[in-house]
Specification:
By secondary structure, this protein is an alpha+beta fold. Helices cover 39% and strands 17% of the residues. It has a 4-stranded antiparallel β-sheet with strand order 2-3-1-4, covered by helices on one side. A hairpin with a 6-residue loop joins strand 2 and strand 3. It is elongated.
């Protein structure tokens, strides 16, 4: 779904879910001032179109002992980028694999319990077919690590667009005026 398919009610619904994804549809409807069937239909559409890909807890990696976080730049052989990235993405330490511009073809984010795990990971990367060179940066301090997409601040009422062919409903305006239930 493109931005043109998201309206103010969708943004308010996403904000409410970001605040507490455990809310029932009935509670969401109450907070947003719309009917239960409206919330159900909107959620179903957001899920079917891939805007909402799932519901998961936000886990503190450091609380699990995963104190080492690294960003690894990779130089990858021409013609082997996607194949190499897909292989690396399967490693359970890896939580992000990205194409990039600049000196590195790909950036990998990964977490480890200790230096020995990190050492094995880097050596395995260097043995991965397609990987020509690596550059590892150890993350010393995490200032911000936000996994949610905060639709309200990013899209807001000025950037959200009504869905094509459907008029804006009155509930959407009320939802944009601060009715997300955030404390």
């Amino acid at each position: 779904m493109t931005l043109s398919g998201i309206d103010g009610l969708d943004v308010a619904l996403l904000d409410a879910l970001n605040a507490d994804a455990r809310l029932s549809r009935r509670d969401l409807a109450r907070r947003l001032g719309v009917s239960l069937s409206t919330v159900s239909a909107r959620l179903r559409r957001l899920e079917e179109t891939g805007v909402v890909r799932g519901y998961a807890p936000i886990v503190d990696a450091a609380a699990l002992g995963l104190d080492l976080t690294v960003m690894v730049g990779l130089r990858i052989q021409r013609g082997r980028l996607l194949q190499t990235q897909e292989r690396i993405a399967k490693d359970p330490h890896v939580f992000g694999v990205f194409d990039s511009t600049g000196e590195w073809d790909s950036l990998v984010l990964a977490r480890f319990l200790d230096r020995r795990e990190l050492d094995r990971f880097i050596k395995n990367l260097l043995d991965t077919p397609g990987v020509e060179r690596t550059h590892t940066n150890l993350i010393l301090n995490i200032v911000k690590d936000e996994r949610r997409v905060l639709a309200g601040p990013l899209l807001g009422p000025n950037r959200a667009r009504p869905r094509a062919g459907r008029p804006r409903r009155g509930g959407a305006a009320g939802a944009r005026s601060g009715g997300t239930g955030k404390a």
